[in-house]
Description:
Rossmann fold, two-stranded antiparallel sheet, alpha/beta, 34% helix, 10 strands, eight-stranded mixed beta sheet, globular
Amino acid sequence: MRAMAQSDYDEFALFHENLAEWNLDVAVPHVERFFVAVDGLRQLSGLRWGDAPAQLVLVHGGAQNAHTFDTVALALQRPLLALDLPGHGHSDPSPFPHGAVASHATDLIHALEQLLDHPVPLVGMSLGGLCAILVAAERPDLVASLTLIDITPGVNADKARHVTDFVNGPATFDNFDALLARTITHNPTRSESSLRRGILHNAVQRADGSWVWRHQQHPHATLSAPDAGDLWARLGELTMPVTLLRAMGPGSVVDDADEAKLLSVAPGARVVHVANSGHSIQGDQPLELAALLARLVVN
């Protein structure tokens, strides 16, 4: 078998795999990659799904990228934007570390100012969710509602250790198969095809043939549990609808205390439990996530 090479990768040529894996009988809409300036020449990138104005914005977690929501976007069949956080996917690196929630939120705000002409639902998973809290707090004119995917400001190093231990593993891999094998070990419930696809979206091959995660190409590449600071207080200030989608399977970083704290600081918030899902609901239960977003978030 010929070794996997970066030349085999076309980021828009794999949607048929998502459709087949989840038995989706839908059309693939027009999808394009875009770039917007956020700080001088530094750019934030993302995927625009559909040709109409976006009905929602999706922001991924640490060490992921916009393609993590592909199956969700296909199932939703709505125009939307999926963004790459700074230093992730195709976005330029930030001068700040990966867990720098405040600076990432500022970049997201600068991007959304150019991409939106009215407030839309903002959906953030993990690190993206913490950034989304600040975006919603600082620019409510851009955010119609806030949905957090398996994250609260209660995240800490212990709760996130299983995630950070995986991400902060080997800096490089000799070949694609070594990277795939490590990923399969960490995600035993996922199909090999989905993990292979995810790696192609989230890793790059170097000139010497080795592979590295996209976010580890840049300085400050070590992922750590973000410093949530006063995000509980900022969450309590929000006036738009807030929803927490909490994963109820192994790997979630949200516990009962976090849920209780959320309802204490934001009494009007909704909490929805998602069964049979680990931390990455978009990976474990993408159709359920799409259905929840369609019912609870998108008008």
